[in-house]
Write a structure and sequence with these properties.
By secondary structure, the chain is an alpha+beta fold. It is built from 13 helices and ten strands. Among the domains are: 121 residues, no CATH class; 52 residues, no CATH class; 80 residues, no CATH class. The chain is globular and about 65 Å long. The chain starts with 9 loop residues before the first helix and ends with a helix. The relative contact order is 0.07.
Length: 394
């Protein structure tokens, strides 16, 4: 069900000033309301002097550029760009500029509001909250700012995702990649919400069941790995599969020396599993060993030469340098969390982090959610362990 933007009150939300830059190209400015100016310690009688550009609507070249700004007077950065570096988001070759306007760009408040209602899914459509990407999709902005020094994002069907080769200012995101990233984030949110609902319902049931002496029940975990993880986190416990436990053990084994050097006190505090004592009567007798005066030489065995290892895997095992197989697998694992930007992230981090463990550590930082970082860390360690096993003939 589509939901339109709310009715605006200029005294509460501010209003627009629209100027024609040239034929069929208008600039839209936000004029803040008096209450926001007062909250920011500014003179409300000079509201027009604080107007700030909000939109460029170009009917000739068929693009719309959003200038995301902070519109809350009681927040830092009032009327300034709301993101760290990205100052503009452009929708290229868009068909939303002329909704019922007979081929002309809007020149009235109502016309601009109609254009905002037609913005794609994932965008804030209410100017009173500052335009740009809706909060759940802020991670797309974060990814672009981490991967480039660009100040403008252009969402287009005519370019592949990545920085413009002739300029350091524009970062292109293909229509398909933007939609893939948006849908992936929606899916993660839905899985988390579903897990939370399941755990809340099960918790309420178990409280009542305990009072009535009825057996309790466990929440349904679902099939998706994220759903299982979110359910465990919502219960206050994080259970790992046998596969993930082995991956963690391999990772800890590989890092034991460095942990002992950097944090020996924490390593010393790890509990040592106790070994159950066996009663004397159940303990097996020592094996019988006949007295031999001279130990005969063992028979000579003809051994076959070891097979030659894959040189790429051998290099990873010997030096810790990621193999091509590892890079391909880790890129796919990261894509689950950050979408189509994973290849760019891995390529960039490889330049300054050639070691496997340093690379995994830096890639973790690009995963925004702590629970997802745990999943990625375990998968990455498992990939590394698997690649090492395939090169274990070295």
């Amino acid at each position: 069900m589509a939901i339109g933007i709310r009715q605006h009150d200029p005294a509460r939300d501010g209003t627009f000033e629209i100027e024609e830059y040239h034929p069929n190209f208008v600039e839209v400015y936000f004029v803040p309301p008096a209450r926001s100016l007062l909250a920011a310690g500014l003179d409300p009688t000079q509201a027009a002097s604080y107007r700030t550009k909000l939109l460029d609507i170009n009917g000739q070249d068929n693009f719309l550029t959003i200038h995301p700004i902070s519109t809350f007077g009681d927040k830092p950065g009032f009327l300034k760009p709301k993101y760290g570096r990205i100052a503009r988001i452009t929708l290229d070759n868009t068909d939303i500029i002329f909704p019922n306007l007979d081929g002309a760009v809007p020149t009235t408040l109502e016309g601009v509001l109609e254009v905002l209602e037609e913005l794609p899914s994932g965008f804030t459509k209410d100017y009173a909250y500052g335009l740009g990407l809706a909060k759940p999709y802020r991670f797309i902005i974060n990814a672009v700012e981490e991967l480039s020094v660009c100040t403008e994002i252009v969402i287009t069907g005519n370019q592949a995702t990545g920085p413009d080769r002739g300029s350091n200012q524009i970062f292109y995101i293909s229509d398909n990649d933007f939609e893939q990233a948006r849908r992936a984030m929606n899916s993660i949110d839905n899985l988390a919400q579903s897990a939370a609902r399941t755990v809340r319902g099960t918790t309420a049931y178990n409280i009542m069941a305990e009072r009535l002496g009825v057996p309790k029940r466990d929440p349904k975990e679902g099939r998706h790995p994220y759903r299982k993880l979110f359910t465990a986190v919502a219960q206050g416990k994080e259970q790992l599969s046998v596969e993930d436990q082995n991956a963690v053990i391999n990772a800890l084994s590989n890092q034991a020396a460095s942990i002992a050097d950097v944090q020996p006190e924490k390593l010393a505090k790890l509990p040592t599993p106790s070994v159950p004592e066996v009663p004397d009567e159940l303990a097996p007798a020592p094996p019988f060993k006949p007295h031999v005066l001279v130990q005969p030489n063992p028979p000579l065995e003809k051994t076959l030469p070891e097979p030659l290892p894959d040189p790429d895997l051998a290099n990873q095992v010997a030096t810790g340098t990621p193999s091509k197989d590892f890079i391909a697998q880790i890129t796919n694992a990261l894509a689950v969390h950050v979408g189509p930007f994973s290849k760019l992230i891995v390529e960039r981090e490889m330049k300054s982090n050639p070691n496997v463990f340093e690379l995994i550590s830096k890639l973790e930082e690009h995963v925004p959610n702590a629970d997802e970082r745990l999943v990625f860390r375990v998968r990455a360690s498992h990939i590394n362990a698997t690649v090492k096993e395939s090169g274990s003939d070295v």
